[in-house]
Write the structure tokens for this entry.
Amino acid sequence: MDDALAPSATAPAIRSAGHERGYPEFLERAGRIATGLRDMGVEPGDRISIVMRNEPAYLEITAAAAQLGASAVPVNWHFKHDDLRHVLTDSGSKVVFVHTDMVDAVTAVLPEGARIVEAPVPSAVAAACGLTAPAATGRHPLLDTWLAGHEPLAEAAAERPPTVIYSSGTTGRPKGVLREPVSQEQIAEAVQSFLEYFAVAPGGRTLIPAPLYHASPSQHAVLALAAGLDITLMPRFDAEEFLRLVERHRIEQVQVVPTMFVRLLRLPKDVRERYDLSSLTSVVHAAAPCPPHIKHAMIDWLGPVLREYYGGSETGAVTWCDSAEWLAHPGTVGRAEGTCGVAVLGPDGEPVPTGATGEIYLKPSDSWPRFTYLGDPAKRAAMEAPGLPGYVTIGDIGHLDADGCLYLSDRRNDMVISGGVNIYPAEIEGCLLALDGVRDAAVFGIPDEEFGEVLAAHLETEPGVVLSAEAVRGHVGERLAGYKVPRAVVFEERLPRDESGKLFKRRLREPYWEGRDGVI
């Protein structure tokens, strides 16, 4: 088996919703899956897809593909119709592993010649996700029966395959990030960096509360396997269940997204104080800007164990900061570490002065694999910084301070230009989250005849809370400039986020722009 996915057989366990595998059983099952894939015609360099919720079998399939020299493509199980068809077709997947309740959706868009292996949803996983565990369809091989009919693969492929991860599709069609194969030396370096920056020791205990179809938790899981960590997977994030798992399994390290912080802080104080979280030594967060008042509250609660990084699926982590560095530079996402680099450029492609806002360009670590986009090399080329070889943009806006600390303003695509003024919705969303009764917030631009765009705020409130649009505007107007006050305020029963907290803002924005030469 590939060294990056072959921890010691004496390492701890992998579990999810009461379903647990020791590493010896995990490795044996992965070997059987690899043989089964080979017998289905999967060869080194081919791709398979996984449309499943978090459970140990997900990681076994990932490990099996690597053993065979194939690539396992994580697929967002929220995808429907066109997005799902696009990912399965674009990736060229020969086999798709699917949880039973999603078999029909996958069958409807399955590429010609591709085959399905059906994975029944474990009852505890179904309960955690609010499902009634469906009966098997009877139309496809069932994972456990199928793998039991094969012996473990006798010899692993010599070459590690390239990896493919698709974006969440929050701003457009999901795009496949294709990373080139890495050497064993690069793998070893990546594992060592993971242990150092995530502040966890080999054999330590980690919790992964975000879905494995996203790049960060997927990479986290692979490196945790390589380091022989005890791994607890959450099928779906629930704030109190998160606390219960930390206490029960004495979790030392966890990676989260800021939305999870918000939901944890919304728990009543007596609930939060009910659980012993003293085992936590490293709480890593990324994926989105964290409102400063939320991060302050988390540090006050858990102590200086928060660590933050910034990067993307294309670049890996580029900047880092611990709690002490963040408290000294509130709002920063850290400084470039090791061989990484950060540059902030203006519209002319030249570096902007310290403190000035511009587009962020990142230089990945020398050990990070080069990448392109499946079927779209022109998009990859367009990311390059003029005059800065090796630097690419992932579409964020921000600035550097005099100490080299990076601060994010917002996504370039989310920036609103109203009457010629650039407005960054993330700042306003953070302000709205500080308003009592607001559970979630999305701010974006909508068309306006006079200003081109004005701001709309769509809010999700706590159960039983009633707010008025006037109260919302008043709250923002007291804290931010008048041009940052939303013109439209809409209350939603639930904002469209996926399980990792990614907000599908385009679903809210599109109706306002339909029929216009459309900027969406």
Remarks:
- The two ends are 46 Å apart (CA to CA).
- The first strand starts at residue 13 and ends at 16.
- Residues 76 and 213 are 5 Å apart (CA to CA).
- The domain at 415-513 is CATH 3.30.300.30 (GMP Synthetase; Chain A, domain 3).
